[in-house]
Write a structure and sequence with these properties.
The structure is a single chain. By secondary structure, the protein is α/β, with parallel strands linked by helices. The chain is about 40% helix and about 15% strand. The strands form four sheets. It has a seven-stranded mixed beta sheet with strand order 1-9-8-5-4-2-3, with helices on both faces. Helix 2 packs antiparallel against helix 9 and helix 3 runs parallel beside helix 9. The longest helix is centred in the last third of the chain and has 18 residues. Bound molecules: pyridoxal-5'-phosphate. Pyridoxal-5'-phosphate binds next to helix 4 and helix 5.
Amino acid sequence: MIPFLDLRAINAQYHAELKDACARVIDSGWYIGGKELETFEHDFADYCGTQFAIGVANGLDALILTLRAWKELGKLQDGDEVIVPSNTYIASILAITANNLTPILVEPNLSTYNIDPVKIEQAITSKTRVILPVHLYGRLAAMPEIMEIAKKYNLLVLEDSAQSHGAELNGRKAGNWGHASGFSFYPGKNLGALGDAGAVTTNDEELANMLKALRNYGSHEKYKNLVPGVNSRLDEIQAAILDIKLKYLEKDTEHRRLIANLYLTQIKNPLITLPLDGVDATKYTQHVWHLFVIRTDHREALQKFLADVGVQTLIHYPVPPHKQQAYKKWNDLSYPISEQIHEEVISLPIGPTLTWEDAEKVVQLCNSFKA
Ligand SMILES: *Cc1c(COP(=O)(O)O)cnc(C)c1O
């Protein structure tokens, strides 16, 4: 059996170090808001090339609290419009509606799966305040173009980097393009904790300070509450684990790139559309292949064909946000590119511990698939 992603094997690579770190935290008697968090925040900011990283409880909170912080700082108000890709994972949109802001869904480019900058500009109104690009599947969105548009219309940019730790464009990493960026360290993400965790990266000190208050009941100083905050903290034990896994992230990503390159060069089947490669004209785009997403008109048959021989695949995602029950008022709207993507995509196994042998088997099977 070839699993889609083997989390046990991924963490087993660092078994001894992870156990030592857990033991250190257990024996320290200090479990929240201590040295482990401080170290990880410092190291993760350093990795992304930003001045600040603020640990929070999960990736959704990273996005929710950043928008919330901008409201507290007077930069946003209820009803302001936030431009977001229509094919994103629903969390990006939940962060907007949770803040009483209005999501404006904008279609992606079919070849990159990322938000189309031309359509962003067409969607701007007098109420637009934020662009929330998502680096979907591990590929950076068109950030140079997006930052140009943001500058021209004086908009804030919040990157959703939950799927793209370490991805680069023109030598600049995810999390270091916008005014702020939300990361998730959910176990299945490229940098995964052993539980829930998330972070915001930014170069804006005022925003960083507001986030530190918001995640801790709105308090900078014990028993003094500046704003009505929440409890959204990153535990010491998860911070210690993440700091170890961060050291190996580049190595893990390199393995994903080797597998992606094998798939890109060896899968040859007219029924299958492969993703674009991970390199742009400047030879600098470094896709981190959180997911290897192909398209086919015969998705159900391909998924069954692979499952019957023990290859697990997943669909990211089967239902677009505007067709969800949670957003009933959008159910009749039409986003044809997103709808096509949601009907045709299927994700092949990829990850830091997928063996070369298994990857070659996936290639052979994809090549032998007939409708
Ligand atoms: C995983 C994910 C999130 C949410 O992260 P959690 O840690 O699960 O809350 C947000 N956006 C995208 C694109 C994601 O893939």
